[in-house]
């Protein structure tokens, strides 16, 4: 069977799955993306991402979407303010207007829209939550969705993120908690509602790092500042800490209290949050995870190599999508060889990035001064 006759099913219409669909489309190969969300607007996509030259930017070039990306990239989103919990400003980096677009920030929703709009009508089937796959006698799989529908495919790509339901077809590995929990919220329309906080955060990232907690704020393209409160605690903390996350007012008060021993300028950022407080346990897959080839199934992105959120996951997911698409286009008569070549390179790439991410987590957990020393060491090299 050639790749042009094969039915390709991509489970998950996140950045990785959509990049794969787009790169295949550029090479004249059809694929169907089955996405659990009812529509592209069904769920907020989260904050900004910085896209690296060899990650997301590389993938968008292969997808023929560089121009569209430059139209939504925010150079000034690279700005950084790093502070100690005692209020000392340790580092301020303001991106000059003519700075190269090394790691431009891009709004996740705008990026996902760019990818969705680049696909033919009907390539994304919304509202299809994949539940399980059964093997077909002649090869390939039947996919079963939560709404009772089914679909058949010759190649199944699991791009369904951290809690992948496709992953068990390839490996027993499961994500484990890394001793960090994050509570996410946000301040919409901050320039109008809280101009003093808008000025404090600036145009990009504002990080306050302690050794047991962190508070970071990030300017988004939609006029919102997203606020992330990090707690270096075990997974059960989210249920044992007594903070009623679903009750905005009480959660705001309880979270503000948790930062009462820090310099007083930080808690107004929590008090100004009117977006829901969303608790997120942070987990990762084992570093160096790989699996023996299974005919007709593979994984990409978080489904394959979930890592702590230190700015790599979306870049890797998009790179995976592009590389798998390119491999299938390069071996049109032999999809199995293409998948093997993709997996071999992906395992190596992901392992290297996962090791680096684990080191960065340790540095971030050492506090703002630890991160400053790391930056200084790196600059001196
Ligand atoms: C707080 C936070 C900040 C982050 N910041 C950054 C950053 O700055 N830079 C960076 O590179 N990375 C960052 N990451 C990591 C990044 O978000 C992920 O690595 C990336 O989104 C992975 O892409 P993906 O396509 O593999 O999975 P996802 O983006 O998770 O997409 C998976 C898709 O599959 C769908 N899906 C799930 N289950 C099913 C199912 N059963 N059936 C059908 N569809 C399904 C989901 O609805 C979703 O659309 C951050 C993560 C977090 C939590």
From TrEMBL:
Catalytic activity: a tetracycline + NADPH + O2 + H(+) = an 11a-hydroxytetracycline + NADP(+) + H2O
Top class in the EC scheme: oxidoreductase
The FAD-binding domain, residue ranges: 6-211, 297-355
Chain positions recorded as NADPH binding sites: 43
Keyword Oxidoreductase among UniProt keywords: yes
Keywords assigned: Cytoplasm, FAD, Flavoprotein, Monooxygenase, NADP, Nucleotide-binding, Oxidoreductase
Gene3D superfamilies: FAD/NAD(P)-binding domain
Binding-site list for FAD: 50, 108, 302
Entry superkingdom: Bacteria
Enzyme Commission number(s) of this protein: 1.14.13.-
Required co-factors: FAD
UniProt main location, coarse: cytoplasm
Subunit record text: Monomer.
HAMAP family: TetX_monooxygenase
Role according to the record: An FAD-requiring monooxygenase active on some tetracycline antibiotic derivatives, which leads to their inactivation. Hydroxylates carbon 11a of tetracycline and some analogs.
Entry similarity comment: Belongs to the aromatic-ring hydroxylase family. TetX subfamily.
Protein name (record): Flavin-dependent monooxygenase
């Amino acid at each position: 069977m050639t790749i042009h006759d094969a039915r390709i099913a991509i489970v998950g219409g996140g950045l990785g799955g959509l990049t794969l669909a787009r790169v295949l489309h550029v090479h004249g190969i059809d694929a169907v993306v089955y996405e659990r969300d009812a529509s592209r607007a069904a769920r907020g996509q989260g904050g900004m991402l910085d896209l690296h030259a060899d990650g997301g930017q590389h993938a968008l070039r292969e997808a023929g979407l560089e121009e569209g990306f430059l139209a939504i990239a925010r150079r000034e989103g690279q700005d950084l303010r790093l502070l100690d919990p005692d209020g000392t400003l340790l580092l301020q980096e303001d991106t000059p207007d003519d700075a190269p677009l090394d790691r431009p920030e891009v709004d996740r929703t705008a990026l996902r829209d760019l990818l969705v709009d680049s696909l033919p009508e009907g390539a994304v089937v919304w509202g299809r939550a994949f539940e399980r796959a059964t093997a077909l006698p002649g090869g390939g799989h039947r996919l079963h969705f939560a709404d009772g529908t089914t679909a058949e495919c010759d190649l199944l790509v699991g791009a369904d993120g951290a809690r992948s339901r496709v992953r068990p077809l390839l490996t027993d590995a499961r994500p484990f908690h890394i001793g960090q929990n994050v509570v996410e919220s946000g301040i919409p329309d901050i320039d109008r509602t809280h101009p003093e906080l808008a000025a404090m955060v600036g145009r990009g990232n504002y990080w306050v790092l302690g050794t047991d907690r962190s508070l970071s704020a990030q300017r988004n393209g939609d006029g919102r500042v997203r606020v992330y409160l990090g707690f270096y605690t075990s997974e059960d903390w989210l249920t044992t800490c007594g903070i009623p996350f679903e009750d905005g007012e009480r959660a705001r008060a309880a979270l503000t209290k948790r930062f009462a021993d820090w310099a007083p300028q930080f808690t107004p950022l929590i008090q100004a949050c009117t977006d829901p407080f969303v608790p997120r346990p942070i987990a990762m897959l084992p570093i160096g995870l790989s699996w023996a080839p299974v005919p007709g199934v593979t994984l990409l992105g978080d489904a394959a190599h979930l890592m702590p959120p230190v700015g790599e996951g979306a870049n890797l997911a998009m790179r995976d999508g592009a590389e798998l698409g390119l491999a299938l286009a390069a071996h049109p008569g032999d999809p199995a060889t293409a998948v093997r070549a993709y997996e071999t390179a992906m395992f190596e790439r992901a392992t290297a990035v996962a090791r680096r991410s684990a080191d960065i987590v340790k540095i971030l957990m050492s506090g703002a001064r630890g991160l400053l020393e790391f930056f200084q060491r790196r600059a001196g090299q």
